[in-house]
């Protein structure tokens, strides 16, 4: 496999993921239903429809994110020191649960749908804006990538812009990167057809130590298979990602829920829960 084949130039990622304004809110679960109704009246539900997409109906969508850091926690300390200007390196795996199939399943894995790869991201926060570089990789290749032994690091390797940017950043680090903490949550997403506004609602955000079989397991990183949570967020985490002005109806929905923007960071919260830093 060539290095350029690792990234997906037509990888169905929305334009809004690349460069956007981003704000976050912690929503009490008591007003979650009314907020979802307000958003759902204006925006359609969004789901992945690219290669390997799960087309079965009535799925619950989940995300497992692995955050990377140096052995001395340099990334975490930097993020805690400046919440508005930092860099996070993470790998994301998406999976769906079909609870309606539970009675027919002979094995728990039969109600899970997932793709055999993870999405790697470098997320830069600069004030209220975020910029993201992203590519996908088979899970079995992850260890060699972070050891600098992957095809992407070979001299003369042909890389697209996304992958090249990530490789270049890794070259600037003085320490190797290792899995630092893991975050899992259920996600409900809404997005407009123009890719200018995306609202995600993350539920039961849990923080975990990375399991020992993180990259060798053949199944998805499903909640309940990697040990007990160190902490679980009681509120729903709302993230508003937009290119352009915030619509008046959204401002009204946020005001009705009495929400104020927060600097909440899953990475920082996980670092505190898992490592006691922060």
Structure in words:
The protein is α+β, with helices and mostly antiparallel strands. It has a single domain, classed as VTC, catalytic tunnel domain (mRNA Triphosphatase Cet1, Chain A), CATH 3.20.100. The chain has 6 helices and 10 strands. It has helices spanning 32-40, 74-81, 142-146, 161-171, 248-256, 266-275, and strands at residues 19-27, 60-69, 85-97, 112-114, 117-126, 129-138, 178-191, 197-208, 231-232, 236-242. Strands 1-6-5-3-2-7-8-10 form an 8-stranded antiparallel beta barrel, surrounded by 4 helices. Strand 5 and strand 6 (129-138) form a beta hairpin. It is globular.
SSE arrangement:
Elements (H helix, E strand, L loop, with lengths): L18 E9 L4 H9 L19 E10 L4 H8 L3 E13 L14 E3 L2 E10 L2 E10 L3 H5 L14 H11 L6 E14 L5 E12 L22 E2 L3 E7 L5 H9 L9 H10 L3
Antiparallel strand pairs: 1-6, 1-10, 2-3, 2-7, 3-4, 3-5, 5-6, 7-8, 8-9, 8-10
């Amino acid at each position: 496999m060539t290095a350029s084949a690792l990234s997906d130039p037509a990888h169905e990622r929305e334009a809004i993921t690349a460069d956007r304004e981003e704000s976050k809110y912690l929503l009490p679960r008591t007003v979650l239903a009314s907020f979802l109704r307000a958003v759902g009246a204006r925006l359609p539900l969004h789901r992945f429809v690219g290669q390997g997409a799960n087309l079965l109906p009535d799925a619950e969508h989940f995300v497992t994110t692995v955050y990377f850091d140096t052995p001395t926690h340099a990334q975490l300390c930097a993020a805690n020191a400046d919440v508005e200007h930092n860099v996070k390196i993470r790998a994301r795996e998406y999976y769906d649960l079909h609870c309606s199939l539970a009675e027919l399943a002979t094995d728990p894995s039969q109600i899970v749908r997932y793709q055999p790869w993870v999405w790697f991201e470098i997320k830069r926060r600069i004030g209220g804006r975020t910029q993201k570089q992203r590519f996908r990789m088979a899970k079995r290749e992850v260890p060699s990538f972070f050891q600098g032994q992957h095809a992407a690091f070979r001299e003369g390797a042909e890389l697209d812009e996304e992958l090249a940017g990530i490789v270049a950043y890794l070259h600037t680090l003085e320490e190797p990167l290792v899995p630092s903490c893991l975050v899992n949550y259920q996600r409900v997403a809404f997005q407009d057809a123009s890719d200018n506004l995306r609202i995600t609602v993350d539920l039961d955000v849990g923080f975990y130590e990375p399991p020992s079989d993180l990259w060798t397991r053949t199944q998805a990183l499903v909640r309940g298979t990697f040990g007990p949570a160190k902490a679980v967020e009681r509120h729903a985490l709302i993230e508003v990602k937009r290119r352009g002005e915030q619509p008046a109806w959204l401002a009204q929905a946020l005001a009705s829920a009495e929400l104020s923007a927060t600097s909440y960071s899953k990475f920082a919260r996980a670092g505190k829960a898992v490592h006691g830093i922060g």
